[in-house]
Inverse folding.
């Protein structure tokens, strides 16, 4: 096939959503976007549609890569290839093109996350030069008794983002970074309890997600992270809590001690120096 690309900004949003969903048909895990989830991802993750690309194969759109940008770094936030052209060299050609354009922008690094169990995708990214930073894992937590979260204090999500930038790991996955947390808006919420902080999605629905858990460095090792998790669960009872598989594996013991169960799905956090 003859391949080319076009800026994603050339296309209306409904068309881009259609391209993305087509690219994830029969994917390793079910993924489907609608207008709300797509716009939320664009805003929170800093996706630049002028740098994102539609893959053209034999004059027909057949894939989409969403590129997020911050400073000298870019992230492959999502890449989907239409199922009828998978295995025909489209992925390798597309990645080479995306990396070439990142260098032309004078980016210094490109990052991504890929499902560890998705061996073809992992192989593609390693072939393109990406190296593994760490394994990322997720957890599932369920109900707890009410009444232990009365000492939680709500804080501005922007404040939570600044604290993550100040005290968190310098190489956190893009979605957990302070910049991403600061872009979140209500109904997501952030809480503090002493020197511990947490960010969660809308707690008024049955399924809620934990997007950040932070303890200030001089207070670590005292069980504050576990206590924060238990307090939040107790404050918002009768919920199912999801910890997306984007948390560094070294954080796992905190969630396990709070009663969370590790999910089978994991990811690789990967980086390419440009």
């Amino acid at each position: 096939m003859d391949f080319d690309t076009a800026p994603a900004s050339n296309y209306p949003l409904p068309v881009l959503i259609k391209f993305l969903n087509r690219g994830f048909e029969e994917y390793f895990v079910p993924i489907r976007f609608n207008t709300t989830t797509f716009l939320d991802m664009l805003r929170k993750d800093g996706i630049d549609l002028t740098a994102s690309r539609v893959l053209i194969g034999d004059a027909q759109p057949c894939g989409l890569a969403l590129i997020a940008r911050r400073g000298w770094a870019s992230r492959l936030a999502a890449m989907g290839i239409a199922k009828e052209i998978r295995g025909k060299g489209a992925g390798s050609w597309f990645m080479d093109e995306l990396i070439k354009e990142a260098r032309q922008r004078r980016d210094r690094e490109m990052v991504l996350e890929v499902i560890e169990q998705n061996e073809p995708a992992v192989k593609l990214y390693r072939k393109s030069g990406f190296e593994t930073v760490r394994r990322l894992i997720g957890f599932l937590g369920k109900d707890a008794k009410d009444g232990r979260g009365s000492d939680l204090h709500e804080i501005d999500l922007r404040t939570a983002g600044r604290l993550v930038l100040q005290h968190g790991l310098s190489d956190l996955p893009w979605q957990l970074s302070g910049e991403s947390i600061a872009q979140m808006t209500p109904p997501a919420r952030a809480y503090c309890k002493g020197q511990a902080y947490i960010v969660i999605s809308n707690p008024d629905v049955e399924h809620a997600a934990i997007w950040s858990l932070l303890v200030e460095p001089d207070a670590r090792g005292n069980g504050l992270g576990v206590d924060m998790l238990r307090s939040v669960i107790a404050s918002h009872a009768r919920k199912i809590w999801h910890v997306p598989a984007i948390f560094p594996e070294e954080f796992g013991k905190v969630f396990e001690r709070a009663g969370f169960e590790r999910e089978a799905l994991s990811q690789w956090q990967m980086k390419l120096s440009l």
Q: What stands out?
A: The two ends are 28 Å apart (CA to CA). The CA atoms of residues 206 and 264 lie 22 Å apart. Helices lie at 13-23, 35-45, 90-104, 119-127, 157-167, 178-182, 224-235, 252-257.
